Amino acid sequence: MIYLVLIVFLLVGSAVAVLALQNFQNEVPLILFTWYLPHLPLGALLALAFGLGALLLYVASALSALQERREVKKLRARVAELEQIVAKSPGGPLPGVFSQPAMRAPIPGMPPPSQK
C-alpha cells in the first residue's frame, strides 16, 4: 500500500513539476481580495499552490492520526479491563449485564403478546 501511495505521489509531483517548468516564463498578477502581487511566474504559483495543498493535507492527516491513536489507547485500556473482569468470574455471567429481563417492544398493528 505504501508503494502505491509513493508511486501516485511521484506521478502527481512530476506532473506538477513539468507543468510549473513549462509555465515558468508566463508572468501573471496574483490578486486575492485586496492583496495584490504584481507579475509572478505562473509556474512558481502552481508549485506554491501544490506545496501548500500537500502541507495542509499532511497537517490534517497528522491531527486525525493523533486523535485515532488516543482513541485506540482508550479502547485497549477498556479491553484490558473487560478481560480482567472475565478472568475473575470464569463460570458465571458478567455482573450487571443480564440483571434485568429483556423488555419486549410492542409491534405496531399487532395484538399485544399474551402474558404467561
Describe the protein.
This protein has helices spanning 2-22, 42-88; strands at residues 27-32, 35-41. By secondary structure, it is mostly helical. Strands 1-2 form a two-stranded antiparallel ribbon. α1 runs antiparallel to α2 (42-88).
Keywords:
mainly alpha, 2 strands, two-stranded antiparallel sheet, 11% strand
Average pLDDT score: 82
Structural class assignment: mainly alpha
How many DSSP helices? 2
Give the total of beta strands. 2
What's the story with the biggest beta sheet? Answer: 2 strands, antiparallel
What is this structure, in a nutshell?
With 116 residues, the protein is mainly α. The chain has 2 helices and 2 strands, in the order αββα.
What are the SSEs and their pairings?
Layout: H1 2-22, E1 27-32, E2 35-41, H2 42-88
Antiparallel strand pairs: 1-2
Helix pairs in contact: 1-2
